[in-house]
Amino acid sequence: MNLSHIIVLLWACGRLRAFEIVEKENIFQRTPCPAFLMFDNAAYLADMSFELPCHCKPEEVPAVVWYYQERLGGGRTRVLTDFDGQVLTAASHVRVGSDLLVRFSIRMFSLLVFRAQPEDSGLYFCGSRSGDYFYAYDVDIQSSEGMVATFRDLGQEPFADAYRGSLHVFTTFWEWTPCDRCGVRGEQWRIGLCYLQSPDLSPRYRKTMPDVVSCGSRAVPRKLQAQARDHPPELLVQSCRVPCRNTTKVRGKLMAILNYVSKVGKRPWLPGVPIQYHQQRLSHGLVISCPGARPEQAVAWDKDSQHLYRTQYLKGTNRSMRVFIDHGNHLHIRFTQLDDRGIYYCWRQGERVAGFRLGVAPRGRYKVSFSDPEVRSALELTLVGFLLLTAVFITVHLWRCCCYVFRCCPSFSR
């Protein structure tokens, strides 16, 4: 590519970028801001990433600032951007325990929150540097800790709707995910979040249906929120089967080349997907993540030729599970054993994308480090046990002292 081609390509990219900005400005010109600030209700599951677009702003405002409040008019207001511009955050660098100020990004006037947590629930305002609000959201992040899994293949049915006077509590399901495997029996699921219907909701919150919001919305009075706590999110799972894409021709040509290059009778092993090697110590825990997968996507796991179906390996199916899949599509192995060695394949949206060759090393000299979560857990358990024994010791001696001073304790001698 010569210099003239490069100049033409840069000019075309600049024109497209300018067209995108002008188109965005035209949207703001056609959408006037409401005279009375309303809150759009939005519900998500924990560990999901979501985007809140700023649908309106005055033409004279060149940039927006996002604000956060836990409750309307209560507590301090947090500013989710600095006034000099927010540095973009990559979702792959965000951890679950990170603070909200680390897990957000602002792109083209929209607020992006990565791996949202239940404590991120609240009111989000799109406004100006001077504190004027243009658009607002009522965000409800529902925890996945108490999520109930329902398997259609076992004849199970979702929760029935609950009616408590004028209060109607029910589950709203999302669309079915694609089949998580191809060519073999797979699974697909849909996430259901808790919603309620009541005439006692605050009129300042915008609803998609009359008098219907998510259970954790700020439009719900506290007394109604307490009645809806026993209705957790749901996960509906069913079997499926889809054919794989036709890759036999390409694979046949590749194998022909390998057969020609390699010696006769010594055909090399072709994994088909990138393989990552990991060495794990015996009796230590391990968590494996599928590369590029999000919690709402269809993700499946295999160990060699064994399919790890959610019907048997979903978190919470059995309390004594040593190997399980959590609601964020991560594979957990507790107390690694020698028979855990093998290749763990990861499927994403019906296509096998990666593999992890796991090796288990026998016990050896273990270097103690306070950064190791198992070392911290052992120290915490030791400290809690010591505090309990100290509390029991002090309680017994205080009781004996009181008995000695007030002479009110019974005598156990004959």
UniProtKB/TrEMBL annotation:
Residues 1-18 form the signal peptide. The chain crosses the membrane at residues 383-406. The keyword Transmembrane helix applies. InterPro entries: FAM187A/B, Ig-like_dom, Ig-like_dom_sf, Ig-like_fold, Ig_V-set. The keyword Transmembrane applies. Its main location: membrane. Keywords: Glycoprotein, Membrane, Signal, Transmembrane, Transmembrane helix. It is found in: Membrane. Pfam families: V-set. It is a single-pass type I membrane protein. Coiled coil: none annotated. Residues 271-346 form the Ig-like domain. Belongs to the FAM187 family. This is Ig-like domain-containing protein.
